[in-house]
Write a structure and sequence with these properties.
Blueprint (H helix, E strand, L loop, with lengths): L2 H20 L12 H65 L4 E6 L9 E10 L12 E4 L18 E5 L18 E7 L4 E5 L9 E10 L11 E4 L15 E5 L19 E6 L1
The chain binds 2-acetamido-2-deoxy-beta-D-glucopyranose.
């Protein structure tokens, strides 16, 4: 017997045995008719296997390339995100610096110091029209301690008048902490790094969410003196000008009381000295 035939027979038998055991599709299995046929089929298989390997290599190379591209893209995106984040952080850090340029101002009447959180713009003397003057300015002004001038003529012809301010109140006053009668009072312009500031007459404390700058009493002209006059909030613990205790009777500030009628009582009350607060946010 030809030994090659025997090998072919053995392989055939093995194939038949395996396929019968697995009960698979017998038609799908390649049949082997001769040694040439066997080798031809093996070769075909090898060629197809080689082709498959080749294809796999190609697609592997392709995948590698894509992964590289993706990771490159990823790196670029990460860098872009890092840059944007750094820029945003910078901008955020710049914000408080910029806010330093913003703020609000108010005059603290009757004091020469601002609160700790506020910057002094200037210290000054409270001033206004004479108590019995029919004209001149109706408002109270804070004249700086260190005036500077443009031209001046020293003429009193066709001029408005402004005088320093004293407080007039009967002592004991039962309102202020100290004796204040006849005392000339200073003022100070304060700058705060807050967006809003408001003087509220008729309140002894600020509303929720607002910060107290100072508290005091509403003061204005005596009710029976001529000419218009504004209201100012004078600190409840006023400082006095040195040697300013004399009775000059020039620009005079008086406590202000509420009067019932058109003003509802309660919540208001007759003849009660109005408190005031200056609040910021
Ligand atoms: C001061 O007076 C002079 C002379 O009349 C004039 O030339 C000048 O413009 C005045 N200055 C101001 C700031 O008004």
């Amino acid at each position: 017997m030809d030994s090659k035939f025997v090998i072919c027979w053995c392989v055939m038998s093995l194939i038949v045995l395996v396929t019968q055991q697995s009960k698979g599709d017998l038609d799908a299995e390649p049949k082997c008719f001769s040694r040439f046929d066997y080798e031809y089929k093996m070769l075909q298989k090898l060629v197809s296997l080689e082709q498959t390997i080749h294809n796999l290599k190609d697609s592997l190379a392709d995948s590698k390339k894509r992964i590289e591209e993706l990771s490159k893209n990823n790196e670029q995106t990460t860098q872009y995100l890092k840059d944007s984040l750094a820029e945003t952080i910078n901008k955020i850090q710049e914000l408080p610096k910029k806010h330093v340029d913003y703020g609000s101002v108010y005059i603290r009447w009757g004091r020469n110091e601002c609160q700790d959180n506020a910057e002094v713009i200037y210290k000054g003397f409270t001033a206004g029209k004479k108590w019995n003057g029919k004209g001149s300015g109706s408002d109270t002004i804070c004249l700086p301690e260190d005036p500077s001038w443009f031209n001046y003529s020293t003429s009193d012809h066709q001029r408005g008048h402004v005088y320093g301010t004293e407080i007039d109140v009967e002592e004991p006053n039962a309102v202020f902490e100290n004796k204040v009668n006849n005392q000339d009072i200073p003022c100070v312009a304060c700058h705060i790094q807050k967006g809003s500031v408001i003087m509220i007459p008729g309140r002894s404390h600020c509303y929720t969410g607002w910060n107290l700058e100072y508290a005091g009493y509403v003061m204005t002209a005596f009710h029976d003196h001529p000419g218009p006059h504004n209201h100012v909030c004078v600190d409840h613990h006023p400082d006095f000008l040195q040697g300013g205790g004399g009775n000059n009777d020039q620009h005079i500030l008086y406590l202000t009381i509420s009067k019932c009628g058109s003003l509802p009582c309660p919540p208001y009350a007759n003849d009660r000295e109005l408190a005031c607060v200056v609040c910021s946010k």
